[in-house]
Amino acid sequence: MNVTEPEAVRAYFLEDIDGLIHGRQCHEYDLIFDRVPSDLDSVLVSWIKSVIAAGAELAWFAFDGSFDFNHILTEDVARQVFAVGTNQGIELAVEDEYRRGSDWADRLSDVRDQLGL
Questions:
Q1: pLDDT of the residue at 112
Q2: Which residues of 27-42 are buried (b: 16+ CB within 10 A; e: fewer)?
Q3: Alpha carbon distance 74, 76 (integer Å)
Q4: For the chain, where are the E strands, in sequence order?
Q5: Half-sphere exposure of 43 (CA within 13 A, CB side)
Q6: Which residue has better confidence, 77 or 2?
């Protein structure tokens, strides 16, 4: 599998001041690419697998500016989330039509419920 490497990766620790993620830690990684990788699905799956294997309970990809502790995988940001993974599996929503549909929002809700968010 030829997984495209980003030009840069920026990492941030996000402090959950209000305790909305119930004592868990949250880290943000901005992957910087010059252009959308031709093997985007492989890139998404590879990065999610690696953080889950490193001990993360949840990993997701979303468009820049969509993160807020009050809206992790909620219906109002579902259109902005294009990949999600847990130790139960990884799901992609790269296609705009699917990401905008109720099935994707429902799937994200299931993941939230599974993790008690």
A1: 93
A2: eeeebeeeeebeebee
A3: 6
A4: 8-14, 26-32, 59-62, 81-86, 89-92
A5: 15
A6: 77
* Spatial separation of the C-alpha atoms in residues 83 and 108, rounded to whole Å: 10
Give the bridge partners for 9, in sequence order: 31
**For the chain, counts of helices (H) and of strands (E):** 3, 5
CA gyration radius for the chain?
14
Residue type, 117: L
d(CA 79, CA 68): 14
In degrees and rounded to multiples of 5, residue 24 shows phi and psi of -80, 165
| Percent with pLDDT over 70 in the chain | 97
Mean pLDDT across the stretch 89-101? 94
pTM: 0.86
Alpha-carbon gap, residue 48 to 30, rounded angstroms: 13
